[in-house]
Structures are given as structure tokens and as C-alpha cells.
Amino acid sequence: MTKKSQAEFLKWMPYVLDALREHGGSATPREVYDTVARLANVPDDVRYAKLNSGGFRYTTNIAFARQYLLWEGYLASPKHGLWMLTPAGQNKILSLDEAGRIFRKWADYYAARRQVASSTEPAETPPTEAEPAPASYKEEILSRLQSNPPEEFERFCADLLRHLGMEEVEVTGGRGDKGIDGEGYLRVGPLVSTKVAFQCKRYSGAVAAKEVREFQGAIGSRAEKGIFFTTGYFTDGARGAARDTTSKPIELIDGDRLVELLEQHEFGLRETKTYEVDYTFMSNYGANAKARKAGNT
């Protein structure tokens, strides 16, 4: 079986279009991941299966599906962190057969580009499946946080909350913390502030519903709401427990969301600008280009 027939992300392409339609035509990547998982009934063991690099196979494949839809003209990405349907994509009901044809079209396109480029130069290759890749800064910072002692992750989260504007932040974790690692006050207007408790779990795996409910119980009358940080992820049951209207509201910050916050507020991450070689353009210069010109004279 060829890699083309093994492309895992093909099955997600129709769901990406459906998810964006459900959100009115545009959404963040996280919203698309969550909506596709719901529409396709993706179980937690599939959704959170990891690659050797530490990233999640599911979200990697959704990102690949989005890239092919972008090339085909069904999606646009007007700014970082926003996926949007184009007029062509708004009413497009995509079948798996059509998804396969889109994949083959763009795979052949890039194969032709590789033939143009020099055989001694790196070639641009479209993704075919979620293969292991070098660890990105996202996996690196989560791995670093997971390797720190628990109290250091608590201190990191407290400093992040201060950076985001929370006041009187205090780390209360340790033995006898009864499930609350810290507290602070979040100003919600010029005259009103609300007390928030937070919990920090430096997991690589899942946070279950039981742990969210225990955190809700620990908050009691100590705070109006809670924030639950983890470097791992929350099960569907945990997300359901956090939305339970009979308990204290809990904001869930999993590893992906945590990295998004670090990116947006440049806390522990620095934005850098880099360049890559345009190998197709540069193939106009060199020994092969000279030979082609000689053949055309």
C-alpha cells in the first residue's frame, strides 16, 4: 500500500468544512478540533494518541486536512489562528472520493515541482500522513514544564495569571492544600472583582472528570470560579463536569490552550522571524539551469 492510500487526514477533510459551517464560517483551530471530534464521535484514545514527537496525531491530521482545503480554495486563513470558509467552501459538501482526488491533485503538483528543482536541492513535499517529526517549541515547552517539580509548575501558573492581570495571586499548594493550588482576584470591571481559585496538574496524559469534580468541591465558598491548568488534556467527561451548572464554573486550560496563551502574551516564548530558501526560484540558477538553457538554443 502506498503512502497516498495511507493518508490518514483524508477522512477529516469533510468534517473540517462541516465544523466551520457550524461556527458560521470561521473558527479558531481549537474550535475546529473540538467540533470535528464531536461530529465524528472521536473517542479520547484516538483524539489524544501521541506521535513520537509528543504532538497529538489527531490535531496534526486535522491541520494537514486544513492545508489541502486551503490549497484547493475551500478555506482561507486571513490571520494566524483563524480558519475561514471561502465562497467556494461555504456550500461544498465534500465526499471522501473528492477528498482523495484533492489529495492526488496536490501531491502530483508538488511532485512536478520537485522535478523542476535541482536533484541536489531539498524539495518541498506536501504532507501525506502524520509522521513523526522533530519536536516543536510547543512540545519542548510542555515537556520542560512536565519535568519541573509540582511546586514550580504552580509558581509558573501563578506568574502567568499575574501577567494576565490577576491581582493578589497567592500559591497555596502543598500538603493539605485540599485540591487548591492558588487563589487570586480577577477584575471584571472598574468596580467589580471576582475571586478565582486555580489547580495545576503537570500531566502528559488525561485529567478525568473525577479530578474536576474534586476541584469544584474544594472551591466551595472560597472562590466564585476556578481555573484548572494541565500540560496534558481533559477527557470528554472532564469537560462535561466543568460545564455542570450545579457546581462552580471551571475554566479548563489544557496543554494546547496553555501554549496558545504563552504565544499570545509572549510569556516564556519569544516570537521570531525566519526565512526559507525558495528552491523553485533558485533552480533557475546553477548547473541544471545552464544545461536547460543550452538545450533550448
What attributes does this structure have?
globular; Trna Endonuclease, Chain: A, domain 1; three-stranded antiparallel beta sheet; alpha/beta; 2 domains; 10 strands; five-stranded mixed beta sheet; 297 residues; Arc Repressor Mutant, subunit A; 14 helices; single chain
Shape: globular
Number of strands: 10
- Summarize the helix and strand pattern as letters: HHEHHHEEHHHHEEEEHEEHEHHH
Helices, by number, come to: 14
| Main β-sheet, spatial strand arrangement | 4-5-6-8-10
Helix/sheet category:
alpha/beta
How large is the share of residues in beta strands? 5-15%
Determine and state the CATH class of the largest domain: Alpha Beta
Based on CA atoms alone, the radius of gyration comes out at 23 Å
Structure explained in plain terms:
It is a single chain. The chain is of the alpha/beta class. 29% of the residues are buried. Residues 1-5 have low confidence and may be disordered. It is built from 14 helices and 10 strands.
Task: Summarize the topology.
Layout: H1 3-6, H2 13-22, E1 26-27, H3 29-39, H4 44-47, H5 57-72, E2 75-76, E3 83-85, H6 87-90, H7 96-116, H8 137-147, H9 150-163, E4 167-171, E5 182-187, E6 193-201, E7 206-207, H10 209-219, E8 225-230, E9 233-234, H11 236-242, E10 250-253, H12 255-265, H13 279-282, H14 287-296
Helix pairs in contact: 2-3, 10-11
